[in-house]
Amino acid sequence: MTGIRIQTAAATLRTIAADPRHLGARIGLTLVLHTWGSALTHHPHVHGIVPGGGLSPDGQRWVGCRPGFFLPVRVLSRLFRRRFLEALAAAHRHGALRCLGDHAALADPGAFARWLAPLRRREWVVYAKRPFAGPQAVLAYLARYTHRVAIANSRLLALDERGVTFRWKDYRATGKTRHRAMTLATGEFMRRFLLHTLPPGFHRIRHYGLIANTARRANLAQARALLHAPGATAPPTEASAATTTHTESPPPTWVCSGCGAAMVVIEILPRRPHIRAPPPQRGAP
């Protein structure tokens, strides 16, 4: 269902943005999946980074949104609701949606259809506004989650006969009482942690539209040229590419993860052989 959520969000934004009655442009977006809350509860949601505009259908001009307004949230919510519920029903019909535990009764098609019916009439909320602290703050926030597991070692406080104790933040509280300690039985702690282990091959970060992997370089170069952004350069020709091949040094093999500078190998330490038996004791024959 998480894949359905991501794909439906991307399709909804691209469809409404391409409509001439709204923006009339091809947009790009990056979606990042985040599945956990501070207490390791299952809270799947998707963060999105969407530029405030896009390329015109012919690719000859940049179409910017109105100041303080990107796309109508009511239109976005209605289209997302319809497409998401349709995809959910299709997944259930083809056996791709499993109903277990307290929801095992929803495996019946009739029961599932009755469960979906009130969701089609309920209003779905879409919130779309410019980030308060600017785009840099959004990028810095999402960068902390792209390759992180559900809990860092720094939050672990104790492991004893009671279970695992860790720090968590209660967002409903205010002031210093937000930061609290929670102790879970070892089995419950592992259950919550494993909830956030993604299936093999599942992509947590996905790019759509202008920044999709297939045509990202050409689309971004076109957008920078139309916006007269710094760093907008013409694509290299064959002659210039041949020249730079002989003059530029090859990229470094190892790069520092902290500062990004190239690392120089000073010495390679050979691996020591494993000790396969304890050393003989004194006086032993």
Automatic annotation (TrEMBL):
Residues 231-251 are annotated as: Disordered. InterPro entries: Transposase_32. Residues 28-215 form the Transposase IS801/IS1294 domain. One of its GO terms (biological process) is DNA transposition. One of its GO terms (molecular function) is DNA binding. Residues 231-248 have a biased composition (Low complexity). Pfam families: Y2_Tnp. It comes from the Bacteria. Signal peptide: none annotated. This is Putative transposase. It comes from Aquisalimonas asiatica. The lineage of its organism: Bacteria, Pseudomonadati, Pseudomonadota, Gammaproteobacteria, Chromatiales.
